[in-house]
Design a protein that fits this description.
The protein is α/β, with parallel strands linked by helices and about 280 residues long. It has two domains: about 55 residues, no CATH class; about 220 residues, Alpha-Beta Complex (2-enoyl-CoA Hydratase, Chain A, domain 1), CATH 3.90.226.10. It is about 40% helix and about 20% strand. Strand 7, helix 8 and strand 8 form a beta-alpha-beta unit. The longest helix is centred in the middle third of the chain and has 17 residues. Bound molecules: zinc ion. Zinc ion binds next to loops.
């Protein structure tokens, strides 16, 4: 790059006898801009030790935080890929393949069963890394699978949402997943099985406008953005300045939209207590 990086730094490193620390060992906190060692961050449940910012985590990470090593991931029904032959500047089928390869998952929701503090549960987890956690036909099938499994095995259901909303490349077929998932979670209430909805950053659009807001208990992870439309769109529509923490968990609890705001590290204990209380 310049003579400092090309010449002075290697000389200094040779002198000190230390290898340069690779960049990928560090993560910058988007909230307080502090550098965090990735390993330390992971050991701290991906929460910044300086400002308590909750980093977004993948569905697989969430699964292992929640159920440890002892869980069974379920196969979810395969759906017709790219039914509308949708194409913007890229084919939807290509985007889908890329996301599947990048995340090593079939679609944006994984379903599993396991135990939390000795209580058997069914979980469905959205992965925001998979096309923004968008809900298309495959995600709809996954939610229905989770509900059926919970009902057939008499287990509580916990859904961790993290989604930008409907999968627009599937058009009306993705919007149809909203009533479908609502019917699926409602089928649990007839059997008195608890459905706990955990809203994590971000839960928006068609997911927040369907099953995610129908939990018997609605938990929001600390500092999560939860809403339907983005705040800028709302501001432009109503021509008013919105409060600074608008659509944040802490704001929503004040307005009575959710039941509790929980720190990620306390989530397992809290969910276990709720299950015990409800069952
Ligand atoms: Zn921070």
């Amino acid at each position: 790059m310049n003579w400092i990086t090309n010449f002075v730094r290697p000389k200094l490193q040779a002198f000190v006898g230390k290898k340069e620390v690779p960049d990928n060992l560090w993560e910058t906190c988007p909230k307080c801009s502090q550098m965090l060692l990735k390993r330390e961050l992971e050991n701290n449940s991906f929460v910044c030790k300086h400002c308590d910012h909750h980093f977004r985590i993948s569905a697989k990470q969430r699964l292992s935080f929640f159920l440890g090593n002892n869980f069974m991931v379920m196969d979810t029904p395969k759906v017709k890929a790219d039914p509308l032959k949708f194409k913007d500047n890229k084919k939807y089928s290509d985007r889908l393949k890329e996301a599947q390869k990048k995340n090593s998952t079939y679609d944006s929701v994984i379903v599993a069963s396991g135990t939390i503090e000795k209580k058997k549960v069914t979980v469905a987890i959205f992965d925001f890394n998979f096309m923004g956690g968008s809900m298309g036909m495959a995600a709809g099938e996954a939610i229905v699978t989770a509900c059926n499994y919970a009902r057939n095995n008499n287990l509580p259901l916990i859904i961790f949402s993290s989604s930008g909303g409907a999968r627009m490349q599937e058009g009306i077929l993705s919007l149809m997943q909203m009533p479908r998932t609502v019917i699926a979670v409602n089928s649990l209430s007839k059997t008195n099985l608890p459905f706990i909805s955990v809203l994590t950053d971000p839960t928006t659009g068609g997911v927040s406008a369907s099953f995610a807001m129908l939990g018997d208990i609605i938990i929001a992870e600390k500092d999560a953005t939860i809403g339907f439309a983005g705040s800028r769109v709302i501001e432009e529509t109503i021509k008013e300045k919105l409060p600074q923490n608008f659509q944040k968990s802490e704001y929503l609890i004040e307005k009575g939209m959710i039941d509790i705001v929980v720190h990620r590290k306390e989530l397992n204990k809290k969910i276990s207590d709720i299950i015990e209380f409800l069952t």
